[in-house]
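Example for tutorial group B:
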């Protein structure tokens, strides 16, 4: 590697977007070689960093001989530093290019194993599994980066909304001693002499915390040992979680609607160029409320057979078609279809809900059981042993207000907003049944 003073470089380098935005004449750029073109007398390098792309133009006879011949040897995606001057050029993308005075190769890239299209708006010709095998390289693509820039805005928007509602950001354990969502789908691990599980959700902890700190939220990683490999399930995923004291399911559905509206609004405002690259036009969603029975009735009219206590994938898709750009809250959910912690509503119904958006479930939630004796009963109905939940049940004995909340899949929301056909596109380093690296 060439000897480069990285401290000096990090302090003095110019980001590509600033070359276009500001009046700068002399620059030191650092980035990756996106493309190279050799027209014998003129050699071009398209350089990219996280802020943009710019053309470096070497001209035979004008550019120093050493730099001109170096430009011929550099491979795509190699990491280079370019020192030079900015010139206006009608032919150059963005109207400016760099006359190189010095090019330093920091790390030369091998032949690329996956397709990184020259046109950033194009899809890679490499299939997803192989792209994921080389995810570190796939992340050099502007289109892949655009997905995660949007996801970062969603996370920022979630935090911003929650803080504006007096929410306190919380952290919860990732190792649990008993199930939080039902008996199956648990990853078992050894913890000294004991058997433990990777967290299926922070459900029990966010409830216990809301009973003292009122409004709590987190972005939490969860693990589900679902055996099936589908385009909408992961074994490790993240959730936007919210829990609120003195609330029922309608209060928190309203919070969810406003929160998602804020998050989507922020993406529209901040990520316009990313959305354009991905070919997505986003609208801030409206909201619709329907009971489970009403939803089923509607779907049956549309010729869709429904489940007694769950919506099918086809049903969710239909709701997306019937109500575009709408968060459809399906409430008064059958009790049988909801976990032990959801408050019953009469004998057969519950205070639980699902939110369907753009044809897919993005959230489930509801009012919780905050009464210890009822909670014991509900656990038994679900074939779970109240003894395994002692500290959770006890937490409702010393001043526990009625409370409600929800969990929304980070990757699910990213997937539906950006119309990705596989949820793995919405995770930087996905974990599914077959994939543990990179
Ligand atoms: P639930 O299990 O429905 O509820 O999960 C909430 C949301 O998380 C997302 N999600 C997933 N995303 C990808 N792969 C998976 N395997 C996966 N499982 C779930 C979905 C789903 O709507 N504790 C409750 C929430 C609550 O009541 O607060 C829970 O975890 O978008």
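The residue assignment follows.
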């Amino acid at each position: 590697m060439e000897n480069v003073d990285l401290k000096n470089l990090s302090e003095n380098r110019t980001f590509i977007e600033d070359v276009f935005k500001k009046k700068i004449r002399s620059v030191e750029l650092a980035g990756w070689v996106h493309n190279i073109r050799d027209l014998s007398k003129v050699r071009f390098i398209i350089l990219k960093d996280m802020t943009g792309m710019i053309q470096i133009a070497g001209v035979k006879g004008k550019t120093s001989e050493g730099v001109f011949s170096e430009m011929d040897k550099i491979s795509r995606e190699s990491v280079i530093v370019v020192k030079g001057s900015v010139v206006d050029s009608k032919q150059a993308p963005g109207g400016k290019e760099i006359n190189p005075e010095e090019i330093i190769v920091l790390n030369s890239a091998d032949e690329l194993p996956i397709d990184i299209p020259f046109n950033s708006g194009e899809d890679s010709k490499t299939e997803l599994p192989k792209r994921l095998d080389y995810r570190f390289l796939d992340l050099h693509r502007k289109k892949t980066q655009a997905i995660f820039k949007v996801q970062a805005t969603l996370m920022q928007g979630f935090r911003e909304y929650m803080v504006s509602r007096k929410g306190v950001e919380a952290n919860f354990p990732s190792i649990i001693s008993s199930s939080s969502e039902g008996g199956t789908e648990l990853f078992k691990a050894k913890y000294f002499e004991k058997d433990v599980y990777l967290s299926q959700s922070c459900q029990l902890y966010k409830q216990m915390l809301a009973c003292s700190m009122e409004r709590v939220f987190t972005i939490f990683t969860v693990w589900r040992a679902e055996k099936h490999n589908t385009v909408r399930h992961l074994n490790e995923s993240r959730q936007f979680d919210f829990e609120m004291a003195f609330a029922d399911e309608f209060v928190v559905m309203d919070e969810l609607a406003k929160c998602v509206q804020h998050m989507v609004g922020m993406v529209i405002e901040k990520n316009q160029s990313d959305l354009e690259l991905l070919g997505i036009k986003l609208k801030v969603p409206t909201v619709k409320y329907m009971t489970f029975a009403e939803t089923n009735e509607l779907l049956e009219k549309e010729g869709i057979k429904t489940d007694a206590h769950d919506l099918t994938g086809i049903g969710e898709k239909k709701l997306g078609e019937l109500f575009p750009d709408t968060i459809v809250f399906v409430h008064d959910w059958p009790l049988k279809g909801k976990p032990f912690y959801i408050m019953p509503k009469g004998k057969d119904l519950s205070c639980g809900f699902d939110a369907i958006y753009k044809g897919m479930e993005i959230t489930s939630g509801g009012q919780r059981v905050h009464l210890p004796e009822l909670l014991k009963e509900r656990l038994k109905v679900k074939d779970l042993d109240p003894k395994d939940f002692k500290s959770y049940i006890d937490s409702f004995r010393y001043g526990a207000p009625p409370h409600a909340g929800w969990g929304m899949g980070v990757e699910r929301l990213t997937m539906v907003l950006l119309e990705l056909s596989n949820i793995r596109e919405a995770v930087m380093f996905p974990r599914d049944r077959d994939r543990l690296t990179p």
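The two ends are 25 Å apart (CA to CA). Compare this with the pattern of hydrophobic and polar residues in the output above.
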